[in-house]
Predict the 3D structure of the following.
Amino acid sequence: MDRSCAATVQVRNAVERALGALEPGDVVLVACSGGPDSLALAAATGWVAKRLGLFAGAVIVDHQLQEGSAEIAAWAAEVCERLGLSPVEVVAVQVDGAGGLEAAARDVRYAALTASAQLHGCKVVLLGHTQEDQAETVLLRLTRGSGARSLSAMAAVNGLWHRPLLDTPRAVVHESATEVLTEIGEVAWRDPHNLDTRFARVRVRQFLESLGDELGPGVIVGLARSASMLRDDADALDELADALFEDAITVEDGVIAVEVNALDGIPRAIRTRVVRAMCLAAGVVPGDLSRDHVLAVDQLVAKWTGQGPAFLPGGVQAQRTYDRLKVSRPTQ
């Protein structure tokens, strides 16, 4: 008889919900660092996979950013195997620090996980983000003046990536990790980078903890709930904007155009999404297109006074001629 604690049952249930749509024989992989979140997830995935007839493996990405990382990765792989996962592989990567160490590490980690998923014909990669991780992401993005899409933070499902523990408190996940690891005589690794205040997420985590002390534990739940509601709103707005783009926008010889009256009376939240899509269709790189750029183009629609073109990254321009707005990269 299974006498697992309530925390382990909760984690297993969350994983089972995430994997319930898969067919017997499908392959899933767990992204594992050796920390308590990912090991609790690995243990639950191994348990659920047996009952659903799935093949469950794990990938440990060694970022090689601290001394002894290869040994930690090898230990994490061994623990995953003891938890019933197979295949288990360690992938060593190089982090060049471009764009900041956190961002660079994340980019190479996801690239490594994607490559492993392709290699093994994997349907789903499970990530161990918890409710606190979601709340931290919301706070980080609030400080950057983000909109609804960005503030919706991490999606529970985003293509290959599944985050079954996104609604589960970190304390529950850690309690489960302690139980399953104690059974095999192991203790989860604690990444010292999680205490290094050079990293923005660490500072936000500490701030969130202090907010919880001051305002109560509902702060974390509230931020995570806000992310979920904002995701619903952003999805609805994106759907409306996509439909308007399809109906009203013409694309010919690299010129993205619209009759301005098609945008008259359209709420700004939808109209600016259409404007952004026009800019991207004209060749602006997404990461280079700022909110200010989008608003400058929107001025040609909403506050037209005969002004000249709006200049965008990559040599792209938006210009209004009478009642027609065009976005393109002019030829010399």
Remarks:
- The mean pLDDT is 93.
- DSSP finds eleven helices and eleven strands in the chain.
- Residues 249-328 form a domain with the Uridine Diphospho-n-acetylenolpyruvylglucosamine Reductase; domain 3 fold (CATH 3.30.465.60).
